[in-house]
Design goal:
With 260 residues, this protein is α/β, with parallel strands linked by helices. Helices cover 43% and strands 16% of the residues. Bound molecules: zinc ion.
Length: 260
């Protein structure tokens, strides 16, 4: 259990930083009932080979298998609501303590919580695209139709199977979003990593990129990561507990300064 003084240190890191980059991963959304779909051996991966199903090759050769695998995840995503970690990060942005939010998550829970300008480096389920003609379809309509009649979603313009706007195995990250994330890593004073094991490149590089230029590093992770040794501070607690607690400490400090 992290001590109160550890939380006070984390608060001070946030308050001392003029430019903070937050990097969130699957651990932030598991508290909302969305399984970590990139971790083989758990949940969604029990009966399938991820590289066969959720890869760009799998999608191109057997889109029906891909969509059968995706269905339970899509159902969970449509029902999910933000948890206290999402709400806490939105509050942090509101307080002016968070300048860039980069997420590996494809859900829209940060946006639902009120966060703005979220950089989805692994894409987002908020849309689908036709790989044949480039046609883009808005997400909500796409998912509801797919879940209602469970036929393969096809492009209204050319009839090809639509692909959700998320990065599959074997695909590169969207260059514009990756550039935004790298730019933030090259100019920030503090990187906060939350609920991310940071095993997926090249996102895993961002904290180190910042660290090399002297930025501070705060980890909010229940489990240990390869970055623990490099971090200024590690708070090992469920993010649905640690984030609201940290935000409250920051808010209190700001209020005290205004009234004191
Ligand atoms: Zn098309």
């Amino acid at each position: 259990m992290p001590t109160p003084s550890l939380y006070a240190e984390a608060r001070d890191l946030l308050l001392a930083s003029a430019k903070t980059l937050l990097l969130t991963g699957a651990g932030v959304s598991t508290g909302s009932g969305i399984p970590d779909f990139r971790s083989p051996g758990k949940g969604l991966w029990e009966f399938v080979d991820p590289f066969a199903v959720a890869s760009i090759w799998g999608f191109r050769t057997q889109p029906d298998l891909f969509y059968r695998w995706l269905r339970p995840l899509a159902e969970k995503m449509l029902q999910a609501r933000p948890n206290p970690a999402h709400l806490g990060f939105a509050a942090l942005q509101e307080l002016g303590l968070l300048q860039t939010l980069v997420t590996q998550n494809i859900d829209d829970l940060h946006e639902q919580a009120g966060s703005r300008d979220v950089v989805h480096v692994h894409g987002s389920a908020q849309g689908a695209r036709c790989l044949a003609c480039g046609n883009w379809v808005e997400g909500k309509h796409f998912w509801h139709t797919f879940l209602a009649d469970s036929t393969l979603p096809t492009c209204a313009q050319c009839g090809s199977v639509l692909k959700p706007d998320v990065v599959l195995f074997g695909e590169e990250l969207p260059a514009d979003r990756l550039a935004q994330a790298q730019e933030a890593a090259l100019t920030c004073d503090l990187v906060v990593v939350a609920g991310a094991s940071l095993e997926v490149m090249p996102t895993a590089d961002l904290p180190l990129l910042a660290r090399r230029r002297g930025a501070r590093l705060l980890l909010l992770n229940l489990g240990s990561t390869m970055l623990d040794q490099q971090a200024d501070l590690v708070i090992r607690e469920d993010v649905t507990l640690s984030v609201p607690r940290l935000v409250e400490l920051c808010r209190q400090n700001i209020l005290d300064k205004m009234t004191g």
